[in-house]
Please model this.
Amino acid sequence: MKKWKKLAAFGLAAALSLSILAGCSGGSDETTAAAETTAASEETAAAAEDTTAAEGAQTADGEWPADVQAIIDRGVLRVGVKNAVVGFGYQDALTGEYSGMEIDLAKMIADYLGVDVEYTTVTAATRGELLDSGDIDCVLATFTITDERKETWDFTTPYYTDYVTVLVEESSGITTLADLVGKVVGVSSGSTSAKSVVEAMIEEGVISGDNYNAETFDPATWTEGVSFQQYDDYPTISTALSAGEVDAFSVDKSILAIYNTEGRTYIEEQFAPQEYGVTTTKGSGLSDVCEELITGWLEDGTIDGLIAEYNLQ
Ligand code: GLU
Model:
């Protein structure tokens, strides 16, 4: 790993985490976000002058990788985030303000580059496409690292690990994975959820899994023991659950939390660890920058601080 990256990550990580934890956390509507970012950038620049970080942030010839330089020239880091995952990426409907651990991390990456941050709401179905099309530079949106996805995008070391579970109406009487036999589960298109449910049911011996193939599994055609209805977003699955269109709603626990309203409950099991990483275009310079920053923030306690701040334990 290049020296400038290491020095920069650690020096600025310390400065930034202090400013973030001191009350700059939380993105906001674009205007306020820009204002906050400017303030944070000034703070960062001031801090950088006093540390080796600024010197370290230069390569021998003083250049950034081309894709990172393009972001710096643009003056804005465009980040795909969730808008309804409390503690990760949540957008206040009235103010438009975003908040959560992923919002803070995105802002810290932008601050490190000395640019503003612009949040774009993404879903499990859209985040990869928006990255591929160049509409956004990176994704911090409960994006689980999988071997299959790593073939297409770069992921940093995980900054958080969640689990998958299943939300049901209490009146359904469903309390375990075994009770899901013969039922229809609502999942998001492009998510790991259906595969996680089937693998957990096989592991528990609830279904045989004789015809299960991890490589070819398709939620749309799977009908052995349980079947799936796919939706583009989570509010629609929640409505479908209320309407009895599906018997259950499965995804990561962090995402389900907001839909666990009165009269609903989780089943007993949680399964399939979901490791979230910052996602970037494969082979990009930004991948290295994000990896270096996340690794530094894991080592220096910044990420633990955010997990505690947002009650994500
Ligand atoms: N984290 C899971 C995934 O990446 C659930 C989908 C989501 O993040 O919305 O597939």
Q: What stands out?
A: The chain has a mean pLDDT of 86. The radius of gyration is 21 Å. The chain is about 40% helix and 20% strand. The longest helix spans residues 3-24.
